[in-house]
Write a structure and sequence with these properties.
This protein is of the alpha+beta class. It has one domain (about 5-90). The chain is about 15% helix and about 30% strand. It is built from one helix and six strands; from the N terminus they run ββββββα. The chain has one helix at about 75-90; strands at about 10-15, 15-20, 25-30, 40-45, 55-60, 65-70. The strands form two sheets. It has a three-stranded mixed β-sheet, with no helix packed on it. Strand 2 (about 15-20) and strand 3 form a beta hairpin. The longest helix has 15 residues, at about 75-90.
Length: about 100
């Protein structure tokens, strides 16, 4: 008998927003994977760390759970340059690489 697979919990990238004139913050889910609406999750106020509120959360529409987290960070320039250099070596050059001739 096969083990039942655990349900897949979608991951959602969020952004941080503060209420103007206050120290109250919210994590904003731009598009809910269940209903397509925008949701707000409390991130704390004052001295609390908003990063502690990231993780699995119940969708405000009540249709399921998702993991709220920060979007992936862009690659650093050194990493991109190294990737481009490897791609040029593997690609064998292009029409624009004929400067040596």
């Amino acid at each position: 008998m096969a083990k039942p697979k655990p349900p897949v919990v979608p991951e959602v990238a969020v952004s941080f927003r503060e209420l103007p004139g206050t120290s109250v913050g919210f994590w904003v889910v731009p598009v809910c994977p269940f209903c397509g609406a925008q949701h707000f999750h409390p991130a704390g106020a004052g001295k609390t760390d908003p990063m502690e509120k990231l993780g699995e959360a119940l969708a405000r529409c009540g249709q399921g759970r998702y993991v709220i987290g920060l979007p992936p960070r862009p690659k650093r320039k050194k990493e991109r340059r190294a990737e481009n250099k490897r791609a040029r070596k593997e690609g064998g050059g292009s029409a624009w690489d004929d400067w040596d001739e």
